[in-house]
Amino acid sequence: MSNVFRLEQLIQRIRSLDKDVEDLRRIRARLPANRSFTPGLQVAFDRHINDILNQKISLEELEVESLPEDLLNEIASVDVATASRISVDREKKEYDLSAEDKRVLEFLRAMPKTEVHLHMEACISKETLAGMLARNRIEYDDEQLNKLYKFSNLQEFIKLFLFIIDSIKTPDDFELVFQNLRDYMNANNVRYGEVFLAPSRMIQNGLDFSEIAETLDRLSRECRLAGGPDIRYLIDVSRTFGPENASKNLQRVLSNAKSSIIGIGLGGAELMGPARDYKDVFAQAQAEGLRTVAHAGEDDGPWSIRDTVEVLKAERIGHGTSAIQDPSLMELIKKKKIPIEICLTSNIFTGKYVRREKDHPVRRYYDDGLICTVNTDDPEIFNVTLTDEYFKLYKSLDFTISEIVDLCRQGVYATFQKNPAGMWNDFKPQIETLRKKYAV
After folding, report:
1. Where in the sequence is the domain holding 209, given as residue range(s)?
2. Which of 194, 339, 391, 429 could disulfide-link to 371, CB 3.0 to 4.6 Å?
3. pTM of the model
4. Are residues 55 and 137 in the same domain?
């Protein structure tokens, strides 16, 4: 009985912290605009709100044995955020599929799609990795690779990602990587994709960026001419290596202009540096006509997203999960019509702000009129496909088929493709035909 009593006190404390956050946000919203002291006060409020949310996280992560089911449901109802972690099983969730579910899944697989948040390095399958290792005469064994792909925490995830990057030894290795990417897109009928490539570690390993750029541009062009998906690239100016390295990557892009390399993206570890540190890099990229996107709100609070919007003036937000904490920020994103690159499964894996599919803020974002795109982020690493992502929205977040088609439309118009209206006019009748075929 005493355990239950303590647990009820814990729930009350979490609710109290929620109320504190709500009150602070309300006061913050009343700060006068355009005053010299306003920005400093806004940052102070944001950081105090974050401190409270971190307290809440520490309480939510306390382990309790033999938790009564009614109290478990009550805790879940007040859960908003979790600490960063990667501890989710890579095995795909098995749904009990009805006949209708199966028709929906087939429809989603056949539906023409776009994807704009996809890391090329994370499209490398275990089989492709083995092929690269053999090609470069690097000794390995199957058990080692199997173990790498069965990660269960953040450290093991990073180990796998770095192992993949370090296995790319020559520009010719991108032949295998690109084929993996192309096969993935074909299998999910992804007609157009904007793919991130992070070159910093590859360059440190001795690869030449100009050769990488030439190879990728050729592969993209050959794919399009052969009737395959249209694949464009966003070069990562990663936080992980700091602003100076980010500027160097931008200069590499500018010195190696290719039609398939359309812009830059700010990726890397979000907590290693605020977005505002990359203002000059983004300003130069935009002045040179490059498109700009940034990961934000994946592992940091809503102020990270606000900096991305107001300081970097990024054209899309990668993840944006923590925007749900700041209604005024959501309104700003809506007003500026900035698309959010939703990566549902990835956000569950990293686990900073959402633990369960049904709790993902994409449902709220969509209902409130924000532009949302559906993406996988790291498909081979997280063992997920774009078809899976759409199905999870249908199965766990109650998106109707018409809403899913609308998300597909939003995804088309959120791309940097030169004629999105033309692409959607091509997609739309195909989707209508597919809906009739699968009776959905």
Report:
1. 103-438
2. 339
3. 0.80
4. no
Selection from 399, 400, 374 nearest residue 388 by Cα = 374
Question: What pLDDT is attached to residue 84?
Answer: 45
How far apart CA 371 and CA 329 sit, in angstroms, is 14
Number of domains in the chain: 2
- So what's the pLDDT on residue 19? 77
190 lies in some domain: yes
Farthest-apart Cα atoms in the chain, separation: 70
Closest CA to 173 of 100, 98, 120, 226: 120
Kind plus residue range of the DSSP H or E element containing 233: strand 230-236
CATH, residue 179: 3.20.20.140
* pLDDT of 155: 64
Instruction: Report the alpha-carbon distance of residue 319 to residue 231 in Å, rounded.
Output: 21
Say how far apart CA 36 and CA 93 lie, in whole Å: 52
Phi, psi (rounded to 5 degrees) for 103: -65, -40
Q: What is the pLDDT of residue 91?
A: 66
Q: Distances in Å between the alpha carbon of 269 and those of 297, 350, 370? A: 11, 12, 25
Pick from 93, 88, 90, 84: nearest CA to 150: 90
pLDDT score for 36: 80
Burial degree of 402 (CB within 10 A; 0-12, 13-18, 19+): exposed
The answer to whether residues 205 and 70 belong to one domain is: no
Looking at this protein, which amino acid is placed at residue 299?
Answer: D
- The closest alpha carbon to 233, from 218, 248, 246, belongs to 218
Give me the average pLDDT of each 10-residue run along the chain (440 residues).
Answer: 56 77 77 78 76 67 50 34 46 80 97 97 90 88 86 73 88 92 97 95 92 97 97 93 94 97 93 90 98 95 95 98 95 98 93 90 98 96 95 97 98 98 98 98
Residue 102 confidence (pLDDT): 96
- Contacts of 23-26 with C-beta under 8 Å, sequence gap 24+, read 24/48, 24/49, 24/52, 25/49, 25/326, 25/327, 25/328
377 DSSP assignment = B
In our burial notation (b when 16+ CB lie closer than 10 A, e otherwise), range 192-225 reads: bbbbbbbbbbbeeeebebeebbebbbbbbeebee
